[in-house]
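Issue: ligand-bound run for flavin-adenine dinucleotide - logging full I/O for the record.

Environment: standard queue, default settings, no custom constraints.

Inputs:
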Amino acid sequence: MKKFDVAIAGGGVIGGAIAMELARAGLRVGVFDRQQPGQEASWASAGILSPAPENPGMIAMVEIGKASFARYPEFVAQVEEISGIKTGFRPKGTLEALFSHDTKAELSTIIAVHHGLGLKAEPLRAEDARELEPALSEEVEAAVLRPEEASIDNRALTAAVLEAAQRSGAEIFPGNGARAIWREGNRCKGLVLQNEKIEAQWTIIAAGCFSAAIEGVTPYAPVRPAKGQMAALRADDLKIERVLWSENIYLVPRNDGRILAGATVEHVGFDKRVTAGGIEKILSAAIELAPSLKNARIEETWAGLRPDTPDHMPILGPTDIDGLLMATGHFRSGILLTPITAQLIREWITEQRVSVDWERFSPLRFQSASTDVARHAPA
Ligand SMILES: Cc1cc2nc3c(=O)[nH]c(=O)nc-3n(C[C@H](O)[C@H](O)[C@H](O)COP(=O)(O)OP(=O)(O)OC[C@H]3O[C@@H](n4cnc5c(N)ncnc54)[C@H](O)[C@@H]3O)c2cc1C
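Outputs:
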């Protein structure tokens, strides 16, 4: 039987980054993926790095988002150095365009909310926004510039993180998914794969939106897929520097000249089909924001499955089963939250303490009163 200090179920950017951190801390780490690692949400993503809340419900995530964002430059430097792979990190800011007729009120609310959360944001008049980003529509009434935000090529990042994990000593096992956690009494002894058991002192579930399908995990990680469709465009006569947002779309420029446009949010199960309606919605919103995109070539379309949770917050940390941790449910912010997730899991395992409060994201928050009673009943 294979034995590890740490067994990780799932080799997306989250599982890969945790493996890298723990291997660098000297632990023997095995990553088990049911397919080739790095081909799910971490591949499909847009790679925007923005701690700003998209809606009031997401304000509880701002602190951890800021903490993760602050670590990004160092994280990228480390991953690129170990892996030898460039990640396309672009710390060029993001710009949110406003179309409404009451932009003055909208603008001051957005700026006040950002400043209240300690996020840098500057109001821009339409003409100043268009000077920065000439591709913006004439219909844009005003804009918010968040100069410190960034984006990254998530496909390159995920490949780099997995390579860096391996070069740091972690072992990766493709096509070897977890069927269940291996539980004996109140201890998790490792993972049950298709045909074998893996023994580990620590077991980490990082299987994205598929985590709940691993037997024994659902009470801690009731994740479900939220499909996102995307399109990659290329336009020779148009340059976009920053990530551009409107209420209906984001446009993310890559270093290779591609412009990513996305994304839908659909709760339709484990369905990754690209639909006419989905792409129509993306393209019409993209052209509304940057009209000259109507001449752009469509280079690629795809869809991926975000790991959504009942409260849309990530699920991080220890469970009430000894040795079992969750690192999943990152929904729309998994790329942003990769550095902090890996750091906190490493701190918990090697130092039994964490440097950022993660209580809000505990895997125990979904347990009902009845399971609470069962949990505290004598074994
Ligand atoms: C269209 C789209 C746009 C996005 N945009 C952004 C963005 O701009 N910024 C941002 O921060 N985030 C964004 N996200 C979210 C982000 O991509 C995810 O939160 C993040 O990639 C989740 O990473 P993960 O490693 O947890 O999951 P995944 O990347 O899905 O990896 C899970 C892994 O687990 C494996 N697996 C499945 N079942 C098992 C099993 N039983 N045993 C072992 N392994 C298993 C899978 O094969 C896969 O390799 C976006 C997501 C999508 C889909």
